[in-house]
């Protein structure tokens, strides 16, 4: 019954930020990594940048040159390190890039990935520029880096301008229009100066420092819940293994026994004896009863109901101590909530029962205090789980102006009930305290997200138009690469709609074989037959075109309009250069609910953790030019399917498809 208390992904970023590069001491210790920054206004940002791994430092790098202009290559290298040190988690909903996914790009000599003649693969800047270029392509479409540095040459040693830096930094703002990148970045306060000013190294360090602070706050799309795991949002618990008391090296026997028991639980070495020790301490006058009962609630041999009772006894002990420790109460409430989630998955009425028990403590705290907020957040979350949305909304709205989680929950559940105007009015009413940078940031992100939600119908209509245009084109050639449960595919598909036929050729590699296999197939839309060459038997086999083996194949037959209205699909549109980029998410709960009646070759769906598409549309022609996807599906037979890939569409290729008679004849024999 291990707890699943939510931990922040940003913890990974925080960890990386606190790592000190070997070879120098931090500013906190009275030393500086460089000998030329002691009196510079950006000294603190430079030091934090070194600690974050953004800048090299050590005995061989004595100077930072804060007033020197930063080159394009240096800025891209800094941006690359920032992305790899945690920035990837912030923009994952828009990239759905797995870690190091871009490392395989740019290796081929036949089709160099970078468009510049002066970025040689033997230079130090090749790799970071390649990775940032790939990231920009993923976010904004093919050749996106050319919108920042146009031409055949990038001039990597040339000083970067403030405007160029802003276009690159804007990838973390989820801005909807790249033409407004400068205004967006300036509004966030990341850059100062004028567009055409050259960016100094000290200024770049300050911009990175401000961006890091931004990344440690909220997600760029705060109302997006693509995996149905985010809401109701509860506070992030950073330390779930506290001692709940201070102990010296000289411990009493009981203190040592408690200390050893906690260590055993933390290190997953706990057993029956561990909890026997804690029960014995719980029956004595041992002063730390909060800790005793908290850790007794972790007993894996005990029923959930017993764990829950221990969790409530820990809260009783907290109030018996008559000390005001909001963080402690928050953790204890989180513990109760976590156990209720595990119980409620099989017995939903538990949420109401737990909510009633937890509500009894409200009379013990002062309304509006931090303790009251901690209790109320979890009471409201239990209301949500018990499907009492209006009660939860009333609680959230009562202190949304002071509490980040209350605000975002209130706005989210208003939008889920199509009360967008109310949500916007609520956000507009929030006047953050000038030192509450997180609330200021959250309010701005919520406004941006709500503006997008207002445009859902229009965005879906634009996407549906481009998809219909592609599907009605007389001929289309599709070139793509994909990965399906470990199988690698590279293919070209010729679609001839006049003849109602298509041909796919290419190769694939099995995870169980070191060699490539031929891939070839034909589709006859008139006969509704699909012909595939089986490389194992070296024969052609046939099947029905309307057979759906996978969930994603079935979802692809659902119209965009229906996905929006009935499947709770979410769409986000960004404009960058020549492309409109539309990202589509269908939440896990909708996928699992809608698929219950689907007849799939793989069987019934048990879980559908991820369904994300990105569509890249040429702004002038409205043609779909690229499609990227990532799907994850788990079937009741325990088969896990992960499918991701990229397709490029060419409407000018000469395509003529005729299914060879020998293929039909061989299948017919």
From TrEMBL:
Which ranges form a coiled coil? none
The record's InterPro entries line, in alphabetical order, gives: SLH_dom
Does Nucleotide-binding appear among the keywords? no
Classification via Pfam families? SLH (PF00395)
Keywords attached to this Swiss-Prot or TrEMBL record, sorted alphabetically, are: Signal
Q: Where is the signal peptide?
A: 1-27
Query: What residues does the SLH domain cover?
Result: 29-93
Q: What is this protein called?
A: S-layer homology domain-containing protein
């Amino acid at each position: 019954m291990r707890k699943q208390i939510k931990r922040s992904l940003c913890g990974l970023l925080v960890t990386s930020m606190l790592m000190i590069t070997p070879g120098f001491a931090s500013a906190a210790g009275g030393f500086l990594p460089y000998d030329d920054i002691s009196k510079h206004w950006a000294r603190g940002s430079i030091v934090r940048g070194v600690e974050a791994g953004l800048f090299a430092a050590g005995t061989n790098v004595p100077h930072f040159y804060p007033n020197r202009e930063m080159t394009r290559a240096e800025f891209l290298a800094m941006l690359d390190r920032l992305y790899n040190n945690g920035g990837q988690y912030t923009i994952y909903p828009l990239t759905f890039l797995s870690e190091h996914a871009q490392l395989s790009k740019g290796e081929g000599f036949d089709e160099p990935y970078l468009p510049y003649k002066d970025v040689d693969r033997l230079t130090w800047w090749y790799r970071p520029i390649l990775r940032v270029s790939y990231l920009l392509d993923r976010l904004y479409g093919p050749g996106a880096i050319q919108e920042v540095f146009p031409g055949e040459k990038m001039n990597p040693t040339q000083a970067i301008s403030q405007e160029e830096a802003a276009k690159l930094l804007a990838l973390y703002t989820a801005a909807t229009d790249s033409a407004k990148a400068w205004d967006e970045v300036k509004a966030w306060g990341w850059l100062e100066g004028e567009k055409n000013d050259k960016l100094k190294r000290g200024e770049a360090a300050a911009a990175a420092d401000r961006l890091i602070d931004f990344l440690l706050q909220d997600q760029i799309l705060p109302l997006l819940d693509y995996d149905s795991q985010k809401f109701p949002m509860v506070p992030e618990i950073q330390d779930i293994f506290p001692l709940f008391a201070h102990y010296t090296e000289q411990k009493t026997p009981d203190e040592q026994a408690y200390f050893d028991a906690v260590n055993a639980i933390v290190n997953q070495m706990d057993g029956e004896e561990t909890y026997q020790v804690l029960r014995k301490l719980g029956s004595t006058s041992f002063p730390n009863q909060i800790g005793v009962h908290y850790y007794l609630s972790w007993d894996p041999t005990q029923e959930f109901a017993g764990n829950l009772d221990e969790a409530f006894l820990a809260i009783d002990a907290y109030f018996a101590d008559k000390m005001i420790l909001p963080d402690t109460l928050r953790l204890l409430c989180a513990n109760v909530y976590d156990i209720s989630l595990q119980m409620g998955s099989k017995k939903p009425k538990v949420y109401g029962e737990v909510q009633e028990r937890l509500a009894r403590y409200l009379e013990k705290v002062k309304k509006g205090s931090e303790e009251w907020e901690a209790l109320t957040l979890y009471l409201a979350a239990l209301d949500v789980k018990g499907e009492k949305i209006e009660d939860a909304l009333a609680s959230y709205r009562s202190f949304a102006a002071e509490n980040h989680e209350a605000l975002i929950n209130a706005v989210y559940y208003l939008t889920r009930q199509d009360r967008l105007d109310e949500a916007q009015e609520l956000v507009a009413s929030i006047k953050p305290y000038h030192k509450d940078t997180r609330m200021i940031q959250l309010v701005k992100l919520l406004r941006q997200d709500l503006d997008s939600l207002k445009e859902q119908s229009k965005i879906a209509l634009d996407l549906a138009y481009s998809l219909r245009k592609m599907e009605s084109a007389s001929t289309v050639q599709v070139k793509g690469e994909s990965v399906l449960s470990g199988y690698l595919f590279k293919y070209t598909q010729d679609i001839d709609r006049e003849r109602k036929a298509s041909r796919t050729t290419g190769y694939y590699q099995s995870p169980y074989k070191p060699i490539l296999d031929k891939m070839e197939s034909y589709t006859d839309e008139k006969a509704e037959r699909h012909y595939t060459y089986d490389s194992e038997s070296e024969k052609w086999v046939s099947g029905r075109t309307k057979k759906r083996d996978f969930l994603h194949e079935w979802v692809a037959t659902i119209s965009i309009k229906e996905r929006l209205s009935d499947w709770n699909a979410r769409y986000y549109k960004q404009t960058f250069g020549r492309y409109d980029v539309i990202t589509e998410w269908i939440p896990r709960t909708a996928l699992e609910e809608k698929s219950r009646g689907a007849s799939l070759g793989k069987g019934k769906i048990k879980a559908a953790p991820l369904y994300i598409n990105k569509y890249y549309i040429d702004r002038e022609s409205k043609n779909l030019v690229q499609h990227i996807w990532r799907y994850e599906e788990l079937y009741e037979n325990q088969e896990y399917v992960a499918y991701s890939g990229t397709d490029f569409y060419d409407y000018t290729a000469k395509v003529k498809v005729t299914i060879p008679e020998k293929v039909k004849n061989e299948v017919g024999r």
